[in-house]
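Quick one, probably user error.
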């Protein structure tokens, strides 16, 4: 399982967000360049819709593939009271022939995109990963070098943390608490719930840029 929240930020404020994250996490950022291929099952695999994402890390000297299957979110009164989405997720490493294998099984290409940006990984009550990236589309199949931004001027921010049936309440609380530090710059909410940009982002970004992240939090 994993806990996740998402939000958007204007590209002009990304540098300020990076300064804030650097101060909060105390670790160096990692460059992000992920080729993401989304596959959906064909009719020969049953009537239940299934979505698989193939992720290729292009920042590695030898690009590595990961298969990620995202299931449905937990439901019930408890889930509604949590500000973080808790969903089932299975992830594993794969060989470079993984795309061919899924095509053979009957999966079809739904869409592909390129995520370019950076990430921070750290422990703060839970093992948390923050990714900040622009979403880019390819004009033709697998042409990552020709990718163009889908929403110029806007970048996606995602905060995730692994969890289990026994720990998701504590992990969700840790993620929610961490997100409060980012509130002056962006709204973070469950995926699919659009909250737009923050009116105070420009002032908060200017303050962060002026003191280089030295503000006490």
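Nope, works fine. Designed sequence:
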């Amino acid at each position: 399982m994993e806990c996740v929240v998402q939000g958007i930020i204007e590209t002009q404020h990304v540098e300020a967000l990076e300064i804030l994250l650097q101060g909060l996490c105390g670790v160096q950022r990692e460059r992000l360049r992920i080729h993401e291929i989304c596959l959906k099952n064909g009719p020969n695999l049953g009537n239940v819709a299934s979505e698989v994402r193939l992720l290729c890390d292009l920042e590695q000297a030898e690009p590595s593939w990961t298969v990620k299957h995202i299931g449905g979110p937990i439901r019930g009164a408890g889930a509604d009271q949590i500000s973080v989405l808790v969903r089932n997720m299975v992830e594993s490493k794969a060989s470079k022939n993984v795309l061919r294998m899924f095509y053979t099984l009957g999966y079809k290409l739904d869409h592909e995109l390129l995520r370019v940006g950076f990430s921070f990984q750290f422990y703060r009550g839970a093992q948390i990963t923050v990714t900040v990236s622009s979403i880019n589309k390819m004009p033709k199949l697998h042409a990552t070098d020709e990718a163009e931004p889908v929403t110029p001027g806007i970048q996606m921010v995602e905060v995730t943390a692994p969890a289990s049936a026994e720990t998701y309440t504590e992990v969700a609380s840790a993620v929610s608490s961490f997100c409060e530090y980012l509130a002056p710059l962006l709204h973070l909410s469950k995926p699919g719930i659009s909250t737009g940009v923050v009116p105070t982002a420009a002032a908060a970004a200017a303050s962060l840029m002026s003191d280089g992240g030295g503000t006490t939090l």
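Residues 16 and 206 are 8 Å apart (CA to CA).
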